[in-house]
Structure formats: structure tokens, C-alpha cells
Amino acid sequence: PLGIAALPLVVKVWWRDLAVIPYALLWIFLMIPPITSMGFRALAPCECFDYVGGSGGQTCFLREDYEVECDGDGVMGAPGRVLAAAWTAVGIWGIGVPLLLGVFVWSGKLATESARDYHPTREWWDGVILVQKLTLCGFLALFRPGTRSQLLVAVMIALAIFAMQLFVQPYRARSDNFFAHGTSLSLIFIFLSSVGLQSTAAF
């Protein structure tokens, strides 16, 4: 994925008139959620099952792949090879890439490419979107996976982002702000529906 994200920069060497930054940023925004999500889910607590027969023992498996047996039931209970791959994905895509983009935005190198849709003083909104994606798709996987508590925390995060979006109105065009509000509301409704379905299943 890193190589594909860098492909427009390579093309730029031969085609100097090509605006490569938007394509690279689009690919990065598309790839960060699934890659970091897989990494964080590999770091999340494994799912454990009691042995049949009441012997008192249990065995734990990776939630992402039940063919992988874990060394423990807590956070980072997966085998060493899985943890190494997970930390690599989280380190590069979950920490390194957002920090690099933050440095570029702070230095003004992306101002002419990615910030033209925002109000002049709100170019930092891309960072808020990245934090939202990393939190909902990544860090939240470490908090009581598969429970209503996890979904309720997701609802609160989505509500906070929605309220911030209403207050900041980061985009120049009113239609862009309206569309952003609609997508945030749909995300909140999805989480609330998931809470309702899980509550119904519990009864």
C-alpha cells in the first residue's frame, strides 16, 4: 500500500504538470482505516473458550483468525509474529503517516493542494477526520470488543465529532458542510442501531 500511495510521486518525475498530492492523499485516506483496523484488532484481547467437560481450562484464539491460537487472553495476547505485523501496521499507518501529514500541513506544503475546500483558518480539519478514523477503526478495538460498552463509546465519539462539525463548519461550500453533517448523522444512527440490535439479542 505504501508503494501504491507513492506511485503518483514517481509519475510526477516524468509528468511534471500532474498534481499528485490529491491522488496520494485520497489513497492514504482510503487505506488508513482498513490497515490500522486490522492492526489494532490483532492487538485486541483474544476470544477464549472453556474446554468441554468442565476441566476448568480454556483456550484463546485471535478474533480476526480463529486458526491462530493466542498465548494469553488479554490485550496483545496474540503470538509474537502477529504482534510484530500488527505493530508495524499501526506504527506506519496509524502513527507515522498521520504525523507526516500533520508536519506537511503545519509547514504549509499541502495548503495549495488539499486545503482549498476548507475555510482559510480550518485546514486542520483533515487532522480531525484522521483522528476520528483512527479512534473508531483502531483504538476502540482495544476496548471491550463486541460489547455494548464499546458501541456506546463509539456513539459518544461520533456525537462529539458531529457537534464539533456543526460548530466549526470547516468547509467553504455550504453543500459540503451539509453533506458532512449527513454522513456524521448516518454514522451515529448506525452505531445506535447496532446498540439496539445487541440489546435485543441479549434478551
Major sheet, described briefly?
Answer: 3 strands, antiparallel
Could you tell me the strand content as a percent range? 5-15%
**Helix-strand makeup class:** mainly alpha
Radius of gyration (Å)? 20 Å
The side-by-side strand order for the widest beta sheet comes to 1-2-3
Distance between the termini: 43 Å
Overall pLDDT: 79
Total number of beta strands: 3
Can you tell me about this structure?
It is a single chain. By secondary structure, the protein is mainly alpha-helical. The chain is built from 7 helices and 3 strands; from the N terminus they run H-H-E-E-E-H-H-H-H-H. A hairpin with a 2-residue loop joins strand 2 (58-62) and strand 3 (65-69). Helix 5 packs antiparallel against helix 6 (148-168). The longest helix has 29 residues, at 174-202.
